[in-house]
Amino acid sequence: MMKRVKLGLAALLSMLLVLLAGCQAVGGVDVGKAALSTLDVKSSMSKQTLSIQLVPTDGKLTEKDRKMIELINSFSLTIDQANMQDMNHTSIEGTAKFNGKKLPFHMAMDKKALTLSVEGMTQPVSVPLELEDFAGPKMNNDSIIQMYKDVWGFMLKHAPNPSSISVTPVTDKVNGESLSLQKLHIDIRGDELVGLAKGFLTSVSKDKEGVKELISRMYDTYYPIFEAYAGAPEEATASVSKAEKEKNINEGVEEMMKALNELLPDFDKNVNELFANSPEFKEVFSKNTVLSLDYLLDSKLNIRKQNIDLTVQLPSSKGLPVKQVKVHSEGETWSVNEPVTVHEVDSSKGIWSVKQGEATPGETLRHVDRQSELYRLLKDDMNITKKSLILYTEKDPKDLNDAGYEPVIVNNTLMVPLKYVADALDAKLTWDNATKQMTLTEDLTGSKIVLKVGSKQASIDGVTKTLAQPVQSFEGYAYVPMNFITEALGAKGSWDAKGLALTIKRD
Fold first, then answer.
1. Which run of H or E residues covers position 171?
2. b/e per residue, 377-413, with b = 16+ CB within 10 A?
3. Total-model pTM
4. Out of 53, 91, 172, 230, which could bridge 326 as a Cys pair, Cβ 3.0 to 4.6 Å?
């Protein structure tokens, strides 16, 4: 995971150069070689900035839309120092700005985990990056790099140049050092993309041997991995015969060439029909969508400085308050392939270890100082504690058709599936087989709610409560009165008898 993140960033720079600069040498600079050289950087130090701007439509904005635009426009990211020691060790230190708040952060990654500390956290958080449940073959650094080189090398071979591309010699400072560099400037408009895509696909369609070579080179490395992810036994992936491999490759080549040959004859006609039937696409792919890039390359064709401006024209729509999205980024890189040491995150106060996707809003806030800007940002600005779900029932809400997922009315009391609602509100549900009791732990407050199937008695933090109806089991799913469980979990429920829908919200 960690390797893919870092190599993916390098590949993104390569992709921009490949797709937008094409394969032709410009001003004596081998653009293709420059694109692939980013994948050969093993260590470096760098800094970067990123900002986003939403341009509002010309009409009058609602107060909600105005606040939303102002909030997003307030975001910026500054990376003061990013150290890549090698392909397995990286650290990043910087500041995120959002709604007038500054949040310094420090992140470090190795091949096992990502550790992050943000000002206001009581402990840094550590998230594992390795796939624990995947026992199949894994890709190493060399195979990942070779994958990118195979793909981008093929694309370089066929990518046409945009109309605006130039190279000029410049002298500029990188980390305070004055360097002689080559400035590669690229401008590409949205109305060029269709033509560039057609040129690329046309070139590929004439290179059947090149397509076969690419598929063949990738087959041995990636086929066993794809099969393992799909659940095939490892011995099955290793037993593919030479004849079967050749058959699979040829079938893949034939399918690709067939698809290209069917697509290209009517390419222009289909694009024109698309734009006619969906004019919003024509607005996006217009001259007002512009990507402007400046890459400053050293004598080894390493990217030492970059400036990226992207403007995306959005389609005119009555419900869309934004007409353009603008992204600006600039950065510089030094100490390329020289000895670099990462800066580790301070773990003297301990580490909060979580698995990917398992940190609930309540658990997150419990690891943040209540008086900090981070706490106010998460709770008040980002509203991470807000939850909303809708449960629907059939024509007669007294009949249960889909147990575990829809509400039901029992003796004039609206009952809801306990686990479904608990999961939606991040409450932890446990079962005590000895007492036959269920215990819910409310995410935000940590309150304990104890229930038992067949009983009208419940408790919240030891205080006894009487339910309107006893907890009932339908097809193995526990159901509880809606009013009780939503209130106990800090939420509110609203039943629409006409629409047969229950809405549960937590602010």
1. strand 164-174
2. bbbeeeeebebebebebeeebeebeeeeebbbbbeeb
3. 0.81
4. 53
